[in-house]
Design goal:
The complex is a heterodimer of chains A (about 375) and B (about 850). Chain A is built from 13 helices and 10 strands. By secondary structure, chain A is an alpha+beta fold. In chain A, helix 2 packs antiparallel against helix 4, helix 3 runs antiparallel to helix 4 and helix 5 crosses helix 9. With about 850 residues, chain B is α+β, with helices and mostly antiparallel strands. Chain B folds into 6 domains: about 70 residues, Phenylalanyl-tRNA Synthetase, Chain B, domain 1; about 120 residues, Nucleic acid-binding proteins (OB fold (Dihydrolipoamide Acetyltransferase, E2P)), CATH 2.40.50; about 190 residues, 3-Layer(bba) Sandwich (Phenylalanyl-tRNA Synthetase, Chain B, domain 3), CATH 3.50.40.10; about 70 residues, 2-Layer Sandwich (Phenylalanyl-tRNA Synthetase, Chain B, domain 1), CATH 3.30.56; about 210 residues, Bira Bifunctional Protein, Domain 2 (BirA Bifunctional Protein, domain 2, 2-Layer Sandwich), CATH 3.30.930; about 90 residues, Alpha-Beta Plaits, CATH 3.30.70.380. In chain B, strand 3 and strand 4 form a beta hairpin. In chain B, helix 6 packs antiparallel against helix 9, helix 7 packs antiparallel against helix 8 and helix 20 crosses helix 21. The longest helix of chain B has 19 residues. Chain B is elongated and about 125 Å long. Classes of the chains: A alpha+beta (about 375), B alpha+beta (about 850). Chains A and B meet through helix 5, strand 1, strand 2, helix 6 and helix 7 of A and helix 7, helix 10, helix 12, helix 13 and strand 28 of B. Zinc ion binds next to loops of chain A. Chain A: Its EC number is 6.1.1.20.
């Protein structure tokens, strides 16, 4: 602090007197602290920090001071103005927050008001579960093959080793297509997706790894467990040195991906004309894992307390089928399987009545949404 | 096939402790589909004993005759005194042994026996009938037991075998031999590695000369034919109780000894037999195909016209049997027949299969013939049958029999001993293949690793090396097969079409539509409901020979009928705002397709020409997407009013399909059923296949349905719909080139153009685009105005044009020039006038 300067007229420079500057500063700080709203603070700002505020006016007086006194006076006034400016900023921030809090509270809404302005759509769970099943094989490197739904008997039966008068052929309750003249046409609604096996082999170079989801038809009346129009997923491999162990491996991989890691599968011998040897695959019940068997206190609806769920049919492709598809059976062998999509949806998601899947009631598909 | 376990155990040495459930599991593991195990008689409990009727007192004065009997039940009643029992049956006499259920016994169905007063007497139990004991259906009276079964008071449970486990096996078409106790016993023996005793090992008495004269016209219809006769048969002789019980347990009703014996041998050996009254036959028998015009009245008293493909048994009177399917009425056994001829034959499987279908006669016999019976079994089976008739019917077996053998020895199948291992992936110990094949009855000759295998006569299903491999693999157990993860080559994933289909489904579902999967069956009525004209292409539909519903014999040519029906169902269930879609095939017969799809041979792959001919016979089956909407597209609520679905939503749904598929659909006015003639758009996809005209390819229609269609389907008013062909849209997809994104500012200009009402907005927009040049970034119609200010019959279309350059900020002058050029083009092409 320098010594008081007495080389100028004190009357003329009263506003620059240290006491006066301090008084003006204190007055300003008190006004700022007293401002209770942003509007009041704005007025305080004009009064104490504006162009016509006492300190601004004082500041103008500095030029009239002797050069030796200017620096000291300038520091004094500037310091006071900075303090006021800081105080304004701080008070402003506090008041702004207070205001925001008040306004945002006033703007609050009831966010639980329902919003169903546009009805929600959904995909059919048979579509999405078939895609999911398909994708498991696609991720293993399989391609997706397709075929027509109105199919030639040759593809649906003959090429698959269903001989013309064999019981296996007549046991498939087949829809036959009438020729324009009213006679036989040699066409049917395909009774299974297996004709796609033959088509895939004729269309592609070997080796062939394909999966074929699709719609199939049998003359069953619609009831809780039957539908004349249903869906299958066919899988097939034809390559060199293929054995039943590869079939089992693919089915295990599918089961683990679809229903849960570590689930066991069981193969039972069975009969299909187009596979030899043939089998049926059971899947360990993924709900009770066999705990319900012989335990009437804890029955399992998913497996009917059997402990196993029938998954589908499979086998090594009958070499006669490979021959009919022009494949060299000395070099190549293959496996195939077929799984019912409706059945899979039924036991995977507890659908109890087949009719729910075919009637198109909006509540059914809506429950599943976009994916299963 | 129903298999009583005690019958099975007669021919296979199963461990005594093996339960029926264990046995079922064992048979399932080798490929017999045991569906259930019936525990017959498990609900029969308490004192049921042999009784001897001591006295019968006829009670009178009641509506029907009633007997009060004093029955000796030994010490079973605790007193040793005869038991007093009231009985309504009359088919027994004093001294007869009968079955008595004493108080405290429970009969099938929870029927509890107690002492009670009836017809004025105290009845202390019941004398039982076969039906009441659950043995077989018999309403003629109580069971009169044969002499020598036991003493009064003896427990009847074991004496009559009231308790039995019966396996119910669903037989697959390849395992016809398991339609017999013999076949199942052989499987059980192989499953458990125990001895099998062949019930067909019957010593054949007599000589093959002097039997009933017979000839077979063609070895292709019958390879073996056996006739054996008995004389002096007592037509009143009863079948033994055990035979009746076993037949009943296999599901066959006991009828008479002669009939029961043929059924018993059928069940035991799997060989169908036929019995004739010898005295009704007229001269020698001939096995031949039917001549056209021949007829036969069969056992069921139906007169049947015979087909030249039917195998017949004939005598001098003409046809007497449809072979393997049903006998004739004139030669059947009757209650007076004393001389009986038993026929056992091996008929052609396919002939019997066709005849059974043709005459709609499926029987225990035809089922076995279709699947193939043992080709060498006939003489043993006929001998077994006549022996039973002799034993229980007092008959004499004729010395001479007829045996026509036209069979051809089977060729051996050559396989490598390691084939089962190569098929299954299991490393079986050496010798396994030979051992297992011999177990199933094959004759095997070995030459190093090569095996010559002759399948047994009861396994016509074994024809190929893989059939032999399966026998080894299944008996070794499918459980042995290891699990090797697949090693597919790197895949190509989904095709573009498959990905697009999923994108379309997600796109429509995201836009608020719910997917349905309806049946493809339709009828003419649906086409009428859609107001399709008599010559409309969509009336040319694939027709089914055997539809489930006679009103719906056709396959859909449009997805709309199924969707509209589903819409109506949902509205009926209380859903007023419904948006549905379906993705599926329609079936369109080809013009000039062949009448009959070819059947190329299967001993080689089809030639390209054969494949093409097969495809030619198939209908076109394009994939379509359709959607229907009714009610509100946007619901009303606390936010404000809802919005009714309109023709524009249908078009928007179609364009959503296009967007999901990566193609742009453009609407043009159209007039097509089933749509409202003024509110229907034809949709075109722009591609290169229109010859450069820019018109695009038609992919479908969208709009509001015709009011009459809405009426005939019972739809909500103003229901809208669209249907487009996905395959065509997919084909139009092109590879997307990345756009160049300019960072320079946009210059926007609004123009309002007045045109005639008949001018299409799409044409105005197209003109603006073409006139505006390369600087145009987008055009958007933001308002349509009609009213006094623009004059009668005219409308004002307000567009927002956005201009931007890739390399500079546009000047106001540049923008104005481009806008003026756009307006000028609209003026010259559509008569548009800039609104002042
Ligand atoms: Zn379970």
């Amino acid at each position: 602090m320098s010594a008081p300067n007495d080389s100028y007229d004190p009357v003329e420079v009263t506003p620059l007197h240290p006491d006066e500057v301090a008084r003006m500063r204190d007055e300003a700080l008190a006004a700022i602290a007293a401002a209770s709203s942003l509007e009041e603070l704005k007025e305080v700002r004009i009064a104490y920090a504006g162009d016509r505020s006492p300190l601004a006016l004082a500041n103008r007086e500095i030029g009239s001071l002797p050069p030796s006194a200017r620096a000291e006076a300038g520091q004094r006034v500037g310091g006071a103005r900075r303090e006021i400016s800081e105080a304004l900023k701080e008070r402003g921030a506090v008041l702004e927050e207070e205001r925001d809090n008040r306004v945002l509270v006033e703007e609050a809404v009831d966010v639980t008001l329902g919003w169903d302005r546009r009805p929600r759509g959904a995909r059919h769970p048979l579509t999405t579960i078939a895609e999911r099943m398909t994708d498991i094989f696609v991720n293993m490197g399989f391609e997706v093959a397709e075929g027509p739904e109105v199919e030639a008997e040759w593809y649906n039966f003959d090429a698959l080793n269903f001989l013309p008068d064999h019981p296996a052929r007549t046991m498939q309750d087949t829809f036959f297509v009438e020729a324009p003249s009213g006679g036989e046409s040699g066409l049917v609604l395909r009774t299974h997706t297996s004709p796609v096996q033959v088509r895939a082999l004729l269309d592609r170079p070997l080796p062939v790894y394909v999966v074929a989801p699709g719609k199939t038809f049998r003359t069953d009346e619609l009831d809780a467990t039957h539908t004349p129009v249903f869906h299958q997923l066919e899988g097939m491999v034809v390559d060199e040195n293929i054995t039943m162990a590869h079939l089992r491996g693919a089915i295990d991989a599918f089961v683990h991906s679809m229903f849960g890691a570590g689930l066991r599968t069981r193969f039972r011998p069975y009969y299909f004309p187009f596979t030899e040897p043939s089998g049926e695959v059971d899947l360990e019940c993924f709900v009770c894992r066999g705990e319900s068997v012989g335990n009437p206190d804890a029955p399992c609806r998913t497996c009917g307390s059997e402990g196993w769920i029938e998954l589908g049919g499979c086998g090594m492709i009958n070499p006669r089928v490979l021959v009919a598809a022009g494949v060299d059976t000395e070099r190549y062998s293959g496996w195939a399987f077929g799984i019912g999509v409706e059945r899979t949806l039924m036991f995977a998601h507890g659908v109890r009545d087949m009719r729910d899947m075919v009637e198109g009631d909006v509540r059914f598909a809506s429950a599943f949404g976009m994916e299963v | 096939m129903r298999v009583p376990v005690s019958w099975l155990r007669e021919y296979v040495d199963l461990p005594a402790e093996l339960t029926a459930r264990d046995l079922a599991a064992g048979l399932i593991s080798v490929g017999l589909e045991v569906e259930t195990v019936d525990e017959i008689g498990a609900d029969i409990t308490g004192p049921i004993v042999l009784g001897r009727v001591r006295e019968i007192e006829e009670l009178t004065g009641f509506k029907k005759p009633i007997r009060y009997c004093r029955v000796d039940v030994g010490a079973a009643n605790g007193t040793g005194e005869p038991q007093g029992i009231v009985c309504g049956a009359r088919n027994f006499s004093e001294g007869d042994p009968v079955v008595v259920a004493l108080p405290g016994a429970t009969l099938p169905g929870g029927f509890a026996i107690s002492a009670r007063t009836t017809y004025g007497r105290v009845s202390e139990g019941m004398i039982c009938s076969a039906t009441e004991l659950g043995l077989w259906e018999d309403h003629t009276g109580i069971v009169v037991l044969p002499e020598g079964l036991g003493e009064p008071g003896a427990d009847i449970h074991d004496l009559l075998g009231l308790r039995e486990d019966v396996l119910d096996i669903a037989v697959t078409p390849d395992r016809g031999y398991t339609l017999s106790i013999r076949g199942v016993a052989r499987e059980a023996a192989a499953t458990y590695g125990v001895s099998f005793h062949d019930p067909a090992d019957v010593p054949v008495s007599g000589t093959a000369e002097g039997g009933y004269p017979a000839t077979v016209a063609d070895p292709a219809i019958c390879s073996r034919y056996v006739l054996r006769g008995v004389t002096g048969f007592d037509p009143d002789a009863e079948s033994p109780l055990w035979m009746k019980r076993r037949l009943a347990q296999t599901g066959v009703r006991p009828i008479s000894l002669a009939v029961d014996v043929t059924n018993y041998v059928l069940m035991e050996l799997g060989q169908p037999l036929h019995a004739w009254d010898r005295d009704k036959l007229r001269g020698p028998i001939e096995v031949r195909l039917a001549h056209s015009g021949e007829q036969l009245e069969t056992l069921d008293h139906v007169k049947r016209s015979l087909d030249p493909d039917d195998i017949l048994i004939t005598d001098e009177s003409g046809p007497i049997n449809i072979a393997g399917v049903m006998g004739g009425a004139t030669t059947e056994i009757d209650p007076t027949s004393t001389n009986v001829i038993i026929e056992a034959a091996h008929f052609s499987e396919t002939h019997i299969a066709r005849a059974s279908r043709r005459h709609q006669l499926s029987s225990e016999s035809s089922r076995r013939f279709e699947r193939g019976v043992d080709s060498e079994l006939q003489l043993a089976a006929a001998t077994r049958a006549v022996n039973l008739l002799a034993e229980f019917g007092g008959a004499g077996v004729e010395e001479g029999y007829t045996h026509i053998d036209l069979s051809v020895a089977r060729e051996p199948i050559t396989i490598d001993e390691r084939l089962p291992a190569r098929v299954s992936g299991v490393d079986y110990p050496a010798g396994t293949t030979v051992r297992r094949l011999r177990e199933v009855g094959c004759a095997v000759e070995e030459a190093g690793q090569t095996l010559w295998v002759t399948p047994p006569s009861w396994r016509p299903d074994i024809t190929d090396p893989n059939d032999l491999a399966e026998e080894v693999i299944r008996l070794e157990g499918y459980g042995e097969i290891p699990s090797i993860p697949p090693r597919a080559p790197a895949g190509r994933g989904l095709t573009s079409g498959q990905r697009i289909r999923r994108a379309v489904g997600r796109g429509l579902a995201g836009a608020g539509f719910i997917e349905t999967l309806s049946y493809p069956f339709v009828g003419e009525g649906h086409f009428d409901g859609l107001r399709l004209g008599p010559d409309d292409e969509r009336r040319r539909a694939v027709r089914l020979t055997n539809p489930l519903n006679d009103d719906e014999p056709l396959l859909r040519t449009t997805l709309l009928p199924g969707l509209l029906r589903t819409l109506v169902r949902n509205v009926g269930r209380g859903f007023n705002d419904v948006a549905l879609f379906e993705i599926g095939l329609v079936y369109l017969p080809k013009e000039g397709a062949p009448e009959y799809a070819p059947m190329p041979p299967v001993d080689r792959g089809p030639t390209p020409e054969e494949r093409a001919n097969l495809e030619e016979a198939l209908p076109e089956q394009p994939r379509r997407v359709a959607a229907v909407l009714a009610g509100n597209r946007e619901l009303s609520g606390w936010w404000g009013k809802g919005r009714q679905a309109t023709w524009a939503d249908a078009i928007e749904a179609a364009r959503e399909v296009g967007r999901a598929a990566g193609a742009e659909l453009r609407p043009r006015p159209a007039d097509d059923s089933p749509w409202h003639p003024g509110r229907c758009a034809a949709l075109y996809v722009v591609n290169n296949s229109d010859g450069g005209s820019g018109a695009g390819t038609l992919v479908g229609h969208a709009g509001e349905l015709h009011p009459r269609v809405i009426g005939s389907y019972g739809l909500p008013a103003r229901t809208v719909a669209m249907e487009v062909e996905l395959d065509v849209i997919e084909a139009a997809r092109t590879t997307v080139r990345a756009p160049e994104i300019s960072g320079y500012p946009v210059a926007a200009q609004d123009v309002a153009l007045v045109v005639d009402n008949s001018v299409l907005a799409a044409d105005v927009e197209e003109a603006l685009r073409s006139g505006a040049g390369d600087l145009l970034e987008s055009v958007r119609l933001f308002d349509v105005y009609t009213g006094e200010q623009v004059g009668e019959g005219r409308k004002s279309l307000a567009y927002n044009l956005r201009f931007r350059a890739g390399d500079r900020t546009l000047t106001a002058e540049e923008t104005t020039v481009a806008r003026d050029a756009a307006v000028a083009a609209a003026a010259s092409r559509t008569g548009a006038v800039l609104r002042g």
